[in-house]
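Task card 7
Instruction: Convert sequence to structure tokens.
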Amino acid sequence: MAGTHVWHTQQWRDQAVTWATRRLADLGLRVTGPPEQPHVRPWSTLLRIPTSDGPVWLKASGPGTAYEARILQASQHWAVPQLPIPLAVDADRAWLLLADAGSPLRRELATSRNLRQWLAILPEYAQVQMALTPRVGEMLALGVPDLRPRTVPTHYTRLLSDHVWLRLGASDGISRDDLHRLRQLTPQITRWSEQLEALGISPTLQHDDFHDGNVFVRRSSRGVAYVFLDWGDASVAHPFGTLLASLRNVATWMDEPVDHKLLGALRDAYLEPWTAHYDRADLLDAVRWATRLAKVGRALAWRRALTGANGTERATYAEFVAGWLRDLLADDSW
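Output:
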């Protein structure tokens, strides 16, 4: 497994392009120009490779997000069209070769500002989650992190004991007063977890960073299709935790005051596939509890993403571990 110190080298790029070229040739495609490397981050890098059938993307993941390659390799047999089908996978090196997914939703929103597009996207994503509930054991075996509600209290307690990641006392870290308050919250974390377990909504694959940069739109004569990318933060968890990132992302597009009516409509659209099996009041309770627990999940996702990062990279991004934990002290819910 590599990291930024390797991904910046010409030797690594040559090896990656050679692998991609061979895999593309197996598919009858040829590389038509030099690759571009749009970004190198501690958790992944991308190469954009022009081919005879348009651009393809090589994604290499770091050790903390390497399971994404295994998820998408396995998903070829799951019949879930919203997940991208890789052109090739090297699971040992956590490399994915992906066709171009279409137009990013973020680009479309920048032009249209039509946030109501999410009314179609969120229930479709919910259907994906429901379809994958029987795959939980398989996903755990692939190394997808286990954040099912009953595991969260243990994760939380261990995280609060890790003063390095908390950056205890640093300006961008957890203060000793906040740490005391977070520890006092432990019984509530346990209650939320137990309440979610008692409702019986099945855990599934939870993207955990489901925002407009990871939703892609394909338009054709057959209509509109969506592709959901970037599963490197995903976990096996309560499905409703996804609304933490999604609704916050939608809210960033809104002028003040925030349109809570639209946010409520988006939440309800997402919940619609579950309404045949659960009471609305129970679903709304589950959203409140799951989105709070998802803040622990976001802190853990950042810690995983920075596995193998150098000191400078950790100093740059580690504030997000502490930041998501501090967010637990805010009295908000969806």
